[in-house]
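A quick word before the example. In earlier lectures we treated sequence and structure as two separate objects. From today on, think of them as two lines of the same record. Here is AAA+ ATPase domain-containing protein written that way.
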Amino acid sequence: MSPTLRNVLSRLEGVKRCGSGWQAFCPSHDDRKPSLHVSKGGDGRVLVHCHAGCSVNDVCTAIGLEVKDLYPEPERKRNQAGSGEVIATYDYKDANGKLLFQVCRTADKRFFQRRPDGKGGWINGLGNVKPVLYRLPELIQAVQRGETAFIPEGEKDVENLVRLGLTATTSPMGAGKWRDCYSDWLKGANCVILPDNDEPGRKHAQQVAQSLHGKAASIKVVELPGLPEKGDVSNWLAAGGTKEELLKLAAEAAEWEPAGKTKPVIVRLAEVEPEEVAWLWEPYIPLGKLTILEGDPGVGKTWLALQLAAIVSRGDPFPGLDGVPRERREPANVVYLSAEDGLADTLRPRLDKAGADVNRVYALTGWEGKSKTGSITLLALDVIETALQQVKPALVVVDPLQAYLGAGVDMHRANEVRPVLAGLAALAERYKCAALCIRHLGKSQQDRAIYRGLGSIDFAAAARSILLVGQHPDDEHRRVLAQSKNSLAAKGVSIAFELREDGFFWCGLSDITVEALLAVPRSEEEKSAVDEAAGFLREALAGDKLRLEAPAGVLTPELKELLAAHKQELVCQLTWTTMLDRANKSYKPGALQWARTHFPDLENPLREAESRFEKAYHRQDIEGVQQAAATWEATIKRTCLLYEFASNGGSVLSKAEKPSLRKSC
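And the structure line, produced from the sequence above:
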């Protein structure tokens, strides 16, 4: 048997001859059935194989050898006196102080473990002994006292730290051998890890820190300054390092965080300096925020956006709340993203008509790299940010917003829309510019204006200001700009403008509300339907008895829906529900006669009632209806009743149908 093979077998437990080799308990894991096979190779080296999967390196480390020790040594080296002599031992004890095993260091800086045989001798390897941390009894007491635990890589380092009066521990078998169960002994402790100055040492430190994460009260990894390659804390102390310096380094070190983990950014509001809201156009377009400009296709949104761009480029004043232009400002740059209009045939001619300084207006049309180009979306924040850095604009226009969301973003899903808008808002805040996003209106009949735009409600939620452009109810050549949302100030008054062949013209302040703009029929078909519905109601009012059948083709499902939406807008702020409650309690056949009995002013001249109702109906002017409520409340209530009767097929309701009257109204 060669000296090399004899050296390996002497360090193993349960060695038995097995064929041409030997079997033994693997020292690298808790082996209850011999799983390690040892044999001699043809070149004289020792072959080891663990059937449980332990690597050759792990097996060698567990018995205090290196892989190179499996190869035969030159005779002269084998005969060196004392090269394998044990010169230091480190006792590992359980929590009660009972000796479990020793780590032995030899003169040639090799390590191996051995355990008591119960007869005053030793057995190499750990066998079934469960490994623990070094100086475990002392560590437990120190953690209970709240002392900081220093964790170097080796037992010699621990002993040197203990001599300084510090609490220290380590794991057996060197770098990379930390087990998660060791961290249980350090729950609630403040831990400082001291890695050796080499790659295995740094990896070991990260392994220990990761294992301690969620268990230790705090974790710091301190890389000691001035260490030589493969140096450790013992080298640092030998070079003049002191306890005080070590404690200072530990105190100044940052808390360890897992790689890739995010941590909260917490700001104490006492440290925040209050600032006033900065405006590009007060109170319509704030700087550093998102503003949405919405309206139906073709209503003039792009015309208005280009007019605003022209004003910014020239430094001209915006219209004021009192109709008087505000003071001039410094001319500024504009970045325009346009997906629907051509630069040469639309944007440039309109900017020229608006008198823009086109040297200050920049179109962001795409991006280009070394080998390819691409179109712009709001997902390409790095490209947009580079443009903002170069141009330094006061205004960024995205026209229209939905065209720049990106192909993979569903505009109806809040969880997809919000991150895109948040990225744009962050850029606007960082570069102190206003982001004006143009959006089309949807077909929704929602009552509130902020719900009428296409896509998720998160569009409206993310914007600090929402502006609506619509056609003037009484002038088809005039447009009105109204504000439906302002999160930073009181809403601005409406402003009218006209689009003519020779350009864009402001027309002063307007009393047209957002609700009135949304009530304007959006097509000739819708306008015709409204007129027909109003005529049907007028005809019903004119008769002595309620019509039992609606005119053929008038009360279509679409018309019912339209009337329901208009009726709700007209009477939602009136007290008509009180009247319906009274009707439900004292109803009797002949609803029209009953209504005239309880509301004599229904007999007022029909022509006057018809005129007032028709005007309010077409303009959807809630405020106007409220002003006339004292005189015409009964007429509006009767109109509601007639609509309810018509909605139920034109028949007079019976007592059995009373609940549906309350529910439907």
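Notice the following. The chain has a mean pLDDT of 78. We will return to this example when we discuss secondary structure assignment.
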